[in-house]
Amino acid sequence: MDYGLFDPDDEGPSVPTAIKILVAGGFGAGKTTLVGSVSETRPLRTEEYLTDQSIGIDDISGVEAKTTTTVAMDFGRITINESLLLYLFGTPGQDRFWFVWEELALGALGAIVLADTRRLADCFPSVDYFERCDMPFIVAVNCFEGARQYRAEEVRQALDLAPGVPVLLCDARERESSKSVLIALMEHVMTAKVAARTA
Fold it and tell me: CB of 67 within 8 A of CB of 28?
């Protein structure tokens, strides 16, 4: 049989499997920082400076020192091995950029919702979105210096999360901490897939 360009018996180099992961959350929660801390390449960022034009549109209470905002996405890459790549897509945090979400979510295996306890309500839209899409997600609480610290279970209760959604504390600036978040997500995705097959 003529397979054209594809011969199943060809033992040539295989194309790596790409896994797409979303990093979501409210404005200033640390999404850009998390993607940058683990990406093996210089991350693609679409940040712009906040200007007077955003006054009355962007709520910066609690994150007044923030001077830039993501307007499309952040993008990073991690090579697990020669046959597996992780692509990280950080979503914009403000409501006015939500139209980008549908495109970014296409084909994603799972998501990290990055929570900032100074503005915890900001991650409700992300949680709602992934619950509606039935996409596996975890909540990672980014522990900012000077912010009041809460236990993971307290955050779970405040967000009214389903019992099976993992919640963990992290520091998005630290590579090892961000890697732990990614590992937790992958473990949760695998558990969710096994549960779906046996249901």
Answer: no
- Token pair for residue 20? 């797409």
CATH topology of domain 17-198: Rossmann fold (3.40.50)
| CA 178 to chain CA mean position, Å | 11
- Are the C-beta atoms of residues 74 and 38 closer than 8 Å to each other? no
Q: Residue 65 pLDDT > 90, yes or no?
A: no
Query: Is this structure's pTM higher than 0.85?
Result: no
Query: Cα separation of 173 and 164, whole Å?
Result: 27
With b meaning 16 or more CB within 10 Å and e meaning fewer, what string describes 158-167? ebebeeebbb
Where along the chain do its domains lie?
17-198
pLDDT above 60 (res 69)? no
Mean pLDDT of 83-110: 79
